[in-house]
Amino acid sequence: MQARTFFVLPRTLAAFAGSVLLLLSCTYLPESVSLAPGVSLRETRSAIALLPDAGLTHAAGFLFYPGALVDPHAYLPWLSDLSSAGIAVIVAKAPGNLAVLSIDAGLSVTSLVPQASSWVIGGHSLGGAMAAWSAASHPDAWAGLVLLAAYPATNKSLAGWSRPVLSLSASNDGLATPQKVADALPLLPPTQYAVTGLGQYTPPSSGGYAVVHQIAGGNHAQFGSYGPQDGDSEATISPAAQHTEIVSFIEEFFQKNGW
Amino acid sequence: MKRILIAAIAAASIAAPSVPQAAHFSLSAAITPQMGLLFAGAFDPGFSAAGLELSGSLERGPFRFEAGSEAGLSPIGWELLFPLRAGIRLGAGPLAFEALLEAAPGMALTRPVLFMAGFGAAGRAVWSIAPSFSLFASIGARWSICPAYGAFTGISYTSIDMPVSIGLRWTPR
How confident is the model over A92-133, as pLDDT tens digits? Predict the structure, then answer.
């Protein structure tokens, strides 16, 4: 009995290890992490905070949920650009890099930056869906929502939400495809502005609304900086160009809403 | 680093069958939540990791040797470690105690896969509930590192955690 068990053990352990490797897709690591000049980083076990050295010029901060199985540092290049514009940024880490395992993590990590008077929540891909989930579950906790290649779950509609939503998608996204993003528009506040560039909308005097913009030539992975992603399509613009467009639209979203 | 990992796994696999038959063999399954104490050199308490461990062990006299695989979550993401432990057993009744030292080479399941490792010590209480089965609970301290993580992210990954393990042991009779 013992000899047979000894023989079985290594194979059992190898099978277990192999199963884990097969079942769990690996986390995408950043291609590079370069912070914009004039931005300081503070990292804890549960979050990464970015603060402009020159001080905050916006009262609201931006809380960000990374995409599924993407290392949270992969978004720092463009998030630090956003922070250099005077916005406090926090990236919420999630167990296993899956925001679905800690949907409400953002409610606690915002205490890292007490200077911000309110917070806009946002995220990429599954992180965006979970940010929308948090907004639906805690409608008064967030000043607004930013969706990057993401949309709310059908059972967490924000159609009745009284806060602004910015939805940025990409024309060459092979995962959150333009069709999927369009199909989910009824889940956003019904007052919607489909814009092709900056300066094309004026927020309504009251109530929720959504600004919808598709980045021409962008793809799913270039919402971060982690290289190509399985299932994605080829981008026809550079990562830097896509990042610049993301930052410009979020910064305008903050300005238009007086945050 | 990969060679070290492969060598450690091979050593554990080869060593097990070479132990004399008089040794007692057992298989264990455990859940292993970890409370974090230090992260990247700063005091940062909070939930750190959790995993599932399957292991085999040999007991000869008061000495124990264990080899296993532990899959779970860490601040980096998903990880797969191969803990190797050596220790002593104190007490022979239905309730016994074990003191163990541990080295746990393994990998962070990232793209690319990165070498990581944990080193620690634990104390464990074992309660015999049936002739072939025991329940056990342990608490310890583990220092985890992933040297290459900093090259990708800019942060040197070191963590000191307090792992807790609760599991079931089967000893064939």
Answer: 999 889 999 889 998 989 999 999 999 999 999 999 999 999
Radius of gyration, CA atoms only, chain A: 20
Is the CB of A21 inside 8 Å of chain B's CB atoms?
A: yes
* Helix, strand or coil, per DSSP, at residue A183: helix
Per the structure block, which two tokens stand in for A251? 């910064």
pLDDT at B20: 46
Tokens 């000043």 belong to residue? A143
Q: Nearest CA to A232 among A59, A57, A70, A60?
A: A70
Read off the amino acid at residue A176: A
Report the Cα–Cα distance between both ends of chain A, in Å, rounded.
70
Q: Between B17, B39, B40, which is nearest A6 by CB? A: B17
How would you classify the pairing of strands A192-195 and A209-215?
parallel
pLDDT-derived band of residue B16, with 50, 70 and 90 as boundaries? very low
Would you call B40 exposed, middle or buried from its count of C-beta atoms within 10 A (0-12, 13-18, 19+)? Answer: middle
- Partner A contacted by B68 (CB < 8 A): yes
3-class secondary structure per residue, B68-134: EEEEEEECCEEEEECCEEEEEEECCCCEEEEEEEEEEEEEECEECCEEEEEEEEEEEEEEEEECCEE
Radius of gyration of chain B (CA): 16
Q: Give the type of residue at B155.
A: I
- Please write the tens of the pLDDT for every residue from B70-105: 999 887 889 999 999 999 999 878 999 999 999 999
Cβ–Cβ < 8 Å for B54, A14: no
Q: A8 touching B, CB under 8 A?
A: no
Q: Residue type for A7, please?
A: F
For residue B2, report the phi and psi dihedrals to the nearest 5 degrees: -60, -35
- Chain B residues closer than 8 Å to A43 by CB: 40, 155
Longest CA–CA span in chain A (Å) reads 78
Token code pair at residue B44: 């940062």
Element (H, E) at B10: helix B2-18
DSSP strand pairing (B42-60 vs B34-39): antiparallel
> Which regions in chain A score pLDDT beneath 50?
1, 3
